[in-house]
Design a protein that fits this description.
- The strands form 3 sheets. The chain has a 4-stranded parallel sheet with strand order 1-2-3-5.
- The protein is an alpha/beta fold and 284 residues long.
- Strand 7 (238-239) and strand 8 form a beta hairpin.
- Among the domains are: 38-159, no CATH class; 163-193, no CATH class.
- The protein is elongated and about 60 Å long.
- 26% of the residues are buried.
- Helices cover 44% and strands 16% of the residues.
- Helix 1 (3-31) packs across helix 3 (51-64).
Length: 284
């Protein structure tokens, strides 16, 4: 057996061993009986492996739940790759050392893909807890890609408050928000003068979201989120004419409407014929 094949076999054996320990740990917890689980002897034995081999195991674990290297899809790890991600979390929680070795590999130069409708669940997830973990440097580059992929034959309208996500991102200069729509990849023409909702305007609207929430205006967004903005509701309106995204800024009681251009919005958004942002008063 070649060396590379030997290493691959050993990595698969270790990963399988760690995953099997999960059931043992769950049974111990259910019985309320003290036990070892992954968190003690197994972790100690794993840490006796050479660092190079541990790094190979880490890489193997992460690639197991990634569709492409460097990209973690939140929906994927919640569905078809759930077992692989659970095995990863088992090792992440085995000890402080394994967490410190694994965490940078999980987040550095990574793209975390989240569908717009899943943003609230993502923010409550273990993945988000590690992405925004206190041990992760504020200088660690991460891209959080918000995917617009909801398209039906009939008019579909959804709203999602992304203010909690913005509050986490604005304090990390190397964390970037990006918006994309696989449905619209073939629509490459950008014509800002086209009517709202027309196919040639659709891709432009995604581009506008990236300009606004790319957070080149972090300081003003931070102040606005602290002082006046309660919610940032982003609608995902998809129909047979394409994407008609609308941003609604919901103000806190007594909050002053922010100056839109300082947040990245264009002055033309004030025109009735090209409404992309609305400002409303909080009802609570």
């Amino acid at each position: 057996m070649a060396v590379s094949e030997t290493n691959k076999f050993l990595m698969q054996t270790i990963v399988g061993f760690l995953y099997k320990q999960r059931q043992t740990t769950m049974e111990v917890a259910a019985n309320d009986t003290p036990g070892q689980g992954i968190g003690s002897k197994q972790a100690e034995a794993f840490l006796l492996l050479p660092p190079e081999l541990r790094n190979n195991v880490y890489k193997n674990l992460i690639e197991a739940f990634q569709i492409t290297p460097g990209t973690t899809d939140y929906l994927h790890i919640c569905t078809s790759a759930q077992d692989e991600f659970t095995a990863f979390l088992d090792l992440m929680g085995a000890s402080r050392q394994t967490r410190n070795e694994l965490l940078p590999l999980l987040v550095k130069n990574q793209t975390i893909q989240v569908r717009l409708r899943h943003v609230p669940a993502f923010l409550e997830s273990t993945l988000a807890r590690y992405v925004f973990h206190q041990d992760v440097s504020a200088e660690t580059p991460i891209i959080i890609e918000i995917i617009m992929d909801r398209l039906t034959t009939s008019h579909t309208h959804m709203e999602c408050d992304i203010a909690p996500l913005l509050r986490l991102v604005v304090g990390r200069p190397k964390v970037q928000l990006a918006f994309s729509s696989p449905i619209l990849d073939s629509m490459l023409t950008v014509d800002l003068s086209a009517p709202v909702g027309s196919p040639v305007r659709t891709n432009a609207r995604i581009k506008e979201l990236n300009q606004i929430f790319g957070l080149w205006y972090r300081e003003t967004w931070t102040s606005a989120l602290d002082d006046s903005i309660a919610r940032v509701e982003l609608s995902e309106t998809m129909g047979n004419r394409g994407y008609n995204g609308l941003v609604q800024l919901v103000l806190k009681p007594g909050g002053k409407a922010p100056d839109l251009p300082t947040l990245g919005f264009h002055e033309r958004y004030r025109d009735d014929e090209s409404v992309v942002v609305r400002i409303s008063t909080s009802c609570c």
